[in-house]
UniProtKB/TrEMBL annotation:
<keyword id="KW-0472">Membrane</keyword>
<dbReference type="GO" id="GO:0000266">
    <property type="term" value="P:mitochondrial fission"/>
</dbReference>
<dbReference type="InterPro" id="IPR019560">
    <property type="entry name" value="Mitochondrial_18_kDa_protein"/>
</dbReference>
<keyword id="KW-0812">Transmembrane</keyword>
<feature type="transmembrane region" description="Helical">
    <location>
        <begin position="116"/>
        <end position="133"/>
    </location>
</feature>
<comment type="similarity">
    <text>Belongs to the MTFP1 family.</text>
</comment>
<dbReference type="Pfam" id="PF10558">
    <property type="entry name" value="MTP18"/>
</dbReference>
<dbReference type="GO" id="GO:0005739">
    <property type="term" value="C:mitochondrion"/>
</dbReference>
<feature type="transmembrane region" description="Helical">
    <location>
        <begin position="77"/>
        <end position="96"/>
    </location>
</feature>
<keyword id="KW-1133">Transmembrane helix</keyword>
<protein>
    <recommendedName>
        <fullName>Mitochondrial fission process protein 1</fullName>
    </recommendedName>
</protein>
């Protein structure tokens, strides 16, 4: 019999969505101050650092060798930064920007309505981008960092 796989609370539960706080901020960028967007990034990075710390601590308890702990910390930090902050933030930013630009073709849509429509489009796209970004980031990490450090 194989051992049951431990559930990763940072990647397999609702906590995963804390990493997408900056996407909510990006969705609202056109309507709120930059400070609010920056706070959303702070939440996403706090989540990223929490997962990194958790993975590092578990490796420290499991193996104890500093090199292994650093490799695990690097893996979690790079994966989370890409999958939770950088890639989805860029994707949502572009979705909202291009949606708003497209709506400028329709002069009857007021700037405020255009902003709210862009927010709605951005927010509604988040559930569709989560899993593809997670999977592609895992593929990327498997073929770069994890191969290089032999994780």
């Amino acid at each position: 019999m194989t051992e049951p796989v431990e559930k990763d609370i940072w990647r397999d539960t609702w906590l995963r969505y804390l990493g997408y706080a900056n996407e909510v901020g990006e969705s609202f960028r056109a309507l709120v101050s930059k400070r609010i967007v920056h706070v959303s990034y702070a939440v996403a990075f706090a989540y990223t650092f929490a997962d990194t710390g958790d993975k590092s601590y578990k490796m420290l308890k499991k193996d104890g060798r500093p090199t292994r702990v650093l490799i695990e910390a690097g893996d979690a930090l790079i994966w989370q930064t890409l999958a939770s902050v950088a890639i989805p933030g860029f994707v949502i930013n572009r979705i909202c920007t291009y949606s708003s630009l497209y709506m400028k073709r329709f002069p009857k849509i007021t700037p405020l309505a255009r902003g709210w429509l862009a927010v709605g489009i951005g927010l509604s796209s988040i559930p569709f981008i989560v899993h593809p970004i997670d999977r592609s980031t895992t593929w990327f990490m498997d073929n770069t960092y994890r191969r290089w450090v032999k994780v």
